[in-house]
Amino acid sequence: MRTLAAGLVLALFPAPATIDTYLDRALDATGLPGVAVVVTHGDKVVHATGAGHDAHGNAVTENTPMRVASVSKSFTAAAVMTLVEDGRVELDDEVHDHLPQLPPRITVRHLLNQTSGISDNSVDIAKLTEARTLADYVGLLPPVNAAEPGTRFAYSNVNYNVAARLVEVLSGESYEDYLRRHVFEPLGMHDSLAGGDAPNGFNSLYGVWFDRPELGDGPAVGGSGTVVTTAHDMGRWLVAQNGHGPFSAESLATMHEPSDVDDYGMGWQPDGNGLLVHSGNLWTYNAIQAIDPETGYGYAVMTNGAALVDDTSTILAGLIALSRGEAPAEPDNTRQLVDWMLAAFGLLSVALGVLGVVRARRWAERRRGRRSWLTAARLVAVALPALLFVSYPQAVSFISSGRTVLWSQLWYFALPLTITLAVAALAGIAVITARVVRLVSVR
Description:
Layout lengths: L1 H11 L3 H15 L3 E8 L2 E9 L13 E2 L4 H14 L22 H6 L11 H4 L5 H6 L17 H15 L3 H13 L5 E2 L6 E5 L2 E5 L14 E3 L1 H11 L7 H8 L12 E2 L5 E6 L4 E7 L4 E7 L1 E2 L5 H12 L10 H25 L1 H8 L4 H19 L1 H8 L7 H4 L4 H28 L1
Parallel strand pairs: 5-12
Antiparallel strand pairs: 1-2, 1-11, 3-7, 4-7, 5-6, 8-9, 9-10, 10-11
């Protein structure tokens, strides 16, 4: 009965032209430079396509290389599971036995479930960005102030980069080669590679997209976010994740099921609507993948632009609606609105700064004879943007659920916010300087 129902769903699925039309509308609405998508069902690719352009001015198609960021984690989990299937490691083996830089009691399962006790706060993330190989990366880890393994979930790229290094140690091959030979090639993903080449992605500055090289902030080949692939290849991957590939049913179930302390599996997580998903955000690319175990559908959305607003989930929701015979919600250009608001705030800061400097003498004369603490308080109030800017990375890290965000990274996806805060801070400093100079001169 379920097979019949699934077949009816596939028969009712809109023609590829309908997906193309939706993707064109989404591209127009969001203003993204380029998008590639794929929809699969069972053992078939329903449609893989692209729209927009890359940094070279070429049309984005189903064969355009795209960086998929943290979607890479599910590939790393699959690579580890091939070693498990070959009997070269057990999920409950301690990683310390193979990588002594790691604390004892952390198992392979803990790494893939993100329950190792390692978080961004337990290591020096800034130091790790200096590594250019996985061996260097693991060598730079100590000291690791990990919590008790298996007791709590903490999402960190460290877990999956360590897992990739473990693949190298156990296999005697580079992670890049192992992933290619044991995951990509068996699936027919011939245009996919860890650390592969892709055109420059894009960042948005006050609504204007411009291309720039991806930020190098760690190993060129890693397990947490360095896979470059295409919509065509992602179709083969999604088909395999829905049980039509070389992975055993047991391995798929292990990768998809949650851990004992969180709903995160091994590179997959339920979204609350019956799907398993994983998103990825780099500094110039975004991506998201999803599979529906009940209906056998699979979806992937990849964009070559990264901004404060990530539109991949919105486009994914539209594809899901189409697969269910529903009218997709029209995407909007929230990114443009946010950028314009930040631009307006930046211009207002400049105007208030100029006004504050021009009126500094008048302000200082009005402060003459008044309580000094009140004058100091007014100066501190003007200094708030500068104080916020100084603590900007820490503030962003705090609202990012404990993920460490570095200064260099804030000049990419968050560029309009960073520049706006910098302008506001400079305007405040200019006003404070002018007021202090005038206060000294009138006394």
